[in-house]
Amino acid sequence: MSSRRLHAAYSATWGRCFAAMYDRMLAKAEVGKLGRLRHDLVAPLSGFIIDVGAGTGVNLRHFGEDAHVTMVEPDRFMAARLAVKAHDVGKSVDVVLAPGEALPLADNSADHVLCTLVLCTAGDPAAVLAEAFRVLKPGGEVHFLEHVRSDDPKVARIQDRLRGPWSLLGCGCQANRKTGLLFAPAGFVVEHIDREQLNGCGPMVSEVIVGTARKPLVSA
Ligand SMILES: C[S@@+](CC[C@H](N)C(=O)[O-])C[C@H]1O[C@@H](n2cnc3c(N)ncnc32)[C@H](O)[C@@H]1O
Questions:
Q1: What is the CA radius of gyration of the chain?
Q2: Nearest in space to 59 (alpha carbons), one of 47, 51, 68, 48
Q3: Both ends of the chain: CA-CA distance in Å?
Q4: Which atom of ligand 1 is the closest one to the Cα of 19?
Q5: Between 3.40.50.720, 3.40.50.150, 3.40.50.2300, 3.40.50.1000, what CATH number should domain 3-214 receive?
Q6: Per residue in 142-178, pLDDT tens?
Q7: What average pLDDT does this structure show over 65-82?
Q8: Which of 133, 146, 171, 175 yields a CA-CA distance of 20 to 30 A from 72?
Q9: How far is the centre of ligand 1, averaged over its atoms, from the C-alpha of 1 (Å)?
Q10: Which of the listed residues 97, 118, 119 should we mutate to test ligand 1's pocket, taking the one with most ligand atoms within 8 A of CB?
């Protein structure tokens, strides 16, 4: 079987189940620290916001009244849940089926780009950030909450060893990426990055970074 057909079969079987189970898998963490970090990141945003790899729309309930949101998601099973959840929480959003590496959106148009738990999964996270840079207005910001490689060498070793099976189970999630290092090469000025521990989530996804990086007013 070709790798394209294999990927399509994986997506139509496990990918579909993953989308159906996603909210339940996250439920405990979302009422705890992960949900609080997410709220603090998302709630202050206003203007035109692009939520990249929006999944089932977990961010939806955190957006404020002044947020005009376009949710971009490449997986049709995840995307199908976005519109339903938007209706359930009473938010009017646009849903676009596309990968973060090729955003079908205009240059210099967005006030904010949001990446939550997505740069670990995207095939080419550097290309996603290049697209974020392109669509942001000068002075616009990318806000992120991402699973990353642990600072603890023992935990990082576990992340490395289990990368393959974890990725297979997690629809491509590579929890051992040093995602924090990708923003400056993409042209962003990092405003802040905090590293947080998520207790009770297991070693693969126990560390996250939360932060903001800005597109300079004048690009280099
Ligand atoms: C772990 S889920 C996170 C969903 C959501 N952002 C959240 O915070 O719950 C990862 C999401 O990234 C999406 N994804 C995978 N590859 C992607 C890519 N190349 N560009 C954008 N999103 C991608 C997946 O389909 C999935 O919905």
A1: 17
A2: 51
A3: 46
A4: 27
A5: 3.40.50.150
A6: 999 999 999 999 999 999 999 999 999 999 999 999 9
A7: 96
A8: 175
A9: 26
A10: 118
